[in-house]
Each structure stands twice: as C-alpha cells, then as structure tokens.
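Q:
Got a chain?
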Amino acid sequence: MDKGGFGSSRLPSADLEANIRYLRENVFSEDDTMRFRKLTNQTNPNLKFCLIYADGMINNKIINDDIVRPLIEYQFPKETGDLAEYVMDRVVCSNDVEKTPEMEKIVQAAVYGDTVLLAGGCDEALLFSTKNFPTRAISEPESERVLRGPREGFNESLLMNLSMLRRRLRTPDLKLRFLTFGRRTRTKACLCYLASVVNRPVLREMERRLAKIDIDGVLDTEYLVELIRDKRWACLDTIGTTERPDVVAAKLLEGRVALLLDGTPQAITAPYLFIESFQSDEDYYLNFYFASIGRILRVMAFYISAMFPAVYIALVNYHPEILPTPLLISFIQARQGVPFPSVLEMLFMLFVFEMLRESGARMPGLMGQTLSIVGALVIGQATVQAKLISAPIIVIVALAGITGLMNPKIKGFTIVVRIIMLALVTILGLYGFLYGNLALLVLLFNLQSFGVPLLSNDSHHTSQKWKDTVVRDPWWKMIRRPEHLSRNRVRQKQDGTGK
C-alpha cells in the first residue's frame, strides 16, 4: 500500500544520527518547514535527543517548557532501562504522549502539528500533542442563519467541532470514532452516534461504505458524499449536510449517524429524508404554529418554483380555453410583437435569472445583492420594452426564482425538475405535466438513504409519524422518535408512564 512517500514501516535503527539522517533524506527531503532540534542533557552528555516538528503548526511554549527544559535539566540516573519509557513516565510534562516505532505514525504526527522525540539508543519515538495551527473563529453559518436560536457554527478544526458537539450531548452514550481518509492527505474524520438510540443497520452500512473508500485525497465532505451515497446518478441528495452543531445533535438524538471531517465546516448526516429539505433549524426554536406555517410555505414554494413555468407554457400553447377570457386576452396583448416562442422566452429568462443569482452569490457582500436587484430590474424592463420578452414571462420567472430561494437545500434538484417539466409540456401539454408529476413521485418513492426510504415518514398515516413532517406539533405531542431512524422509539415519557 502507498505509504505517502516513505518506504520503511518502522524506525531503521536505535542509532539517533542514523534515524535523523533517514528522516531528513528519505521522508522530509525538500521540506524546509520541518525542524530538527537536537538536545543534550546537561548532567549526562551521553544522553542525546532530537525533536522533529513542523514550523508554524506547533505551540512553542509547550515544547520549550514541557519538553525541551525537562530533557536538558533533568538529572537522569545511570540506569534508566527503556529510555523512551522513562522519559515518558518521569521526565516530560505532557498530558498526551504516545510511544511508537511505526514510521507512518511518526510522519503523520509530525506533519499534523505534533512533536516527535527521538532518543539515542532507542528504536521507538515519543509523539507529543503540540498542535497550535490557526483556525477560523466560531461564527454563524452564512447559509443557515436563524432569527432565534444558537449562533454557533462549525469551523475547519475537527477537535473544536467535536467539543461543540460534546457540549450539547453530555452523555457517555455519545460515541466518537476516528477514521482516516486519503492515501496522501490522511484526513482525519469522526463518526458520531448515540449508542442506545442509533439505527444499527444504518450504522453498519455507513461503516461498510466508508471502509471501501480508497482515494488519494479527501478535502471536503462532498468527496465522501459522492462515494457513499445511494443512487450516485440521482440529482437529489440522499445524505444531509449542515454546518450547525445543534442540528447535528438533534439528528443524533433521532437515531441518525453523523460524520465530521477535519478541514471543513460541513458535517454529513444519514439517513436523510426528503421532508428535511423543507425543515429549518429555526422551526424548533419558534412557536409550533409559526414553524408549521413556514414549512407549508416552503413546500408550496418548491412546487411553485418547479412547476409554474411549465404550467404557464402548457396553458398558453396547448390549453388556452382553460384560462379566463380577460386573462387570456391580457396574455395575447402582452405577446404582440414578440418574435420568439414562449418556451424560448421562458428558457432565456430562467437562464438569465440563474446567472444573476450565481453572480450575486459570488460577489462580495452588499455588492452582490445590489448587482442581483439592479440587474433583474434593468434586464426585465429593457427586454419588455424592446419586445424581446413578454411581461407575463418576467412575472412567472421572477416568481419561480424567488420561491426557489426558499429551499436552498434542493436548489439544484428544483432547477432540474423545472427544466424537465418544461420539456415535457412543450411536447405534450398538460399531459406532459401529469406524466412529469407521476415520474417525480415514482423517483421519490424509489430513492433510499442507507436502506431508509426517502419518503418513509410521508408514506405512513398514523398520527405519531406525521408530527414532525409538513407541520410541527408541539413538543408534548412528539412522544416517539421516527420509526425508521431509531431503535429506541421513546423520546419522552407521557403521563409518567413512558408509553
């Protein structure tokens, strides 16, 4: 197996100079950030050591006070036995130290901000935790802002993210298992779940899929999502993503599994239900009446954004008799002098809207918002006056675009459905619209997330299973966890009975 640039499986010998030379020439050659700091004990010149660490990734104070000074000033006895063991137990002051002869562990520790200690006469190294690389401050995720509730979001430090999760789930039932991905990047990840609540088949399937990953580098969770998801060619996500620790904690409490990756603020959760696309973090921090209204509006917004352009084309081109006469006359008058078919008008304006939205998202701050608003106003007004686009098309596209922004989790899926529906109604009219809706339902009913149907909650009709779907019932009504997500169904006791 590729070891990432070093061939030996352990330190070559007990000779300190030979080990230093091997690491300099074969492992860390052409790397000017690696530091080799040689030390000699002042009371026993025969005791020599060497510290190896990456410049800019370590805490200098910890190294100087807890490692360098004790090694230089400590009065070693004539007989120490295993020198590495003696240093680890009696000399250095570190709460996290490991002894190993394995070259892979030594190299990975050095390049990840830990300090490696080599001692003369020892064929094992000591690894000290001295990480201190810069990280982004904790802030609210831009894409998941809330008006009420926690403002914390994950950053790029795995250990800091785990600490935020630990603070919310202060129970030994929370299990955190470290994994490593990427032959070259050796990226750390952590699989998180609640042992007494988790859906065990889902956990085993997640472990099986993760174990099969063999790639040279993993820099973001999207690498893993595309490798382990169900139906890889489906345009709808079957794995959830979030940057909020409170959301991950809530998912774990329902029996899901979460995976956090070092170097990215995005956490992934599984299994994923389609209804989660319309749920907001804020739903559980607001009154259940307002939360339910918000969810209903988001579901309606998805349907409007995906279907309204197709409905307009079908009615205008194939079934004008369905429209009220005054509305039909208004549409005909608006199209006077427009040289292009309605379908081309619709596609062109949808394309322009997506370009404006994308450019506004990429531009910094207020400049992006200004560009989107001004661009939409100027282009819309100019195209109508120039008789290139009819006014109703502008209204339909604006409505579809604005409602599409209400569900950012399925933005891409909404665009794909919209284009397919436009193609179907252009050929078949309202019959194409009906066929498209049937195909959409078939797709949703056939998609699964780690063995759990994407519409699992929506396909059952008992009252308890509908309590956190399109509407959110109050907490005193949500007695049980979702059936497909957890083996421990009881969320809270009812009337002191737990039934």
User: Anything to note?
Assistant: The radius of gyration is 30 Å. The CA atoms of residues 317 and 351 lie 21 Å apart.
